[in-house]
Amino acid sequence: MFSATAARTVVEIDDEPKLLRFLYKANEREVSAGGRDDFYSLLEKTPDLRLPSVVTELEILVREEQADERSVLERAWKYLVVTGLGGGRAKKMACHPKTRHLKLVPVRTV
Q1: Average of pLDDT values for 27-35?
Q2: SS3 for 72?
Q3: pLDDT computed for residue 31 by the predictor
Q4: Which of helix, strand or coil describes residue 51?
Q5: What is the spatial distance between Cα 50 and Cα 62, in angstroms, rounded to a whole number?
Q6: 3-state class percentages of the chain: helix first, strand second, coil last, to nearest 5
């Protein structure tokens, strides 16, 4: 038998949290009609070095019962995941008036 579990812990949130609130509200369908334009205006004004990021610690535990059913093999991995809004050309393209209707969001993850 094989089983896996994952635990996630938010370690740190950096820089401009107002931009992250737009994304959370969009997921909850609470954004007003002007929400998208407000988001892109704030994104465009925010310097690339001040764009928000979230640092998350992720631990994955895998348990596997051996064929004899008397022993269990456990393995664990820990990852540090950094996700945030990206800048540069991706931000410019997302914020450009001619592409805003595409609802592009420049996201980066490592």
Answers
A1: 51
A2: strand
A3: 45
A4: coil
A5: 37
A6: 35, 40, 30
Sheet of 107-109: strand order equals 2-14, 53-65, 72-85, 107-109
For residue 16 the two structure tokens come to: 């401009």
Non-local CB neighbours of 50 within 8 Å, separated by 6+ positions: 15, 16
> Counting beta carbons within 10 angstroms of the beta carbon of residue 31, is it exposed (0 to 12), middle (13 to 18) or buried (19 or more)?
middle
Residues 6+ apart with CB under 8 A from 7: 58, 59, 61
Q: What is the DSSP letter of 28?
A: T
Q: In this structure, are residues 15 and 53 in contact, taking their beta carbons and an 8 Å threshold?
A: yes
Q: Kindly give the residue spans of alpha helices, DSSP state H, lying in the chain.
A: 17-27, 35-45, 88-95
Say what the pLDDT of residue 92 is: 95
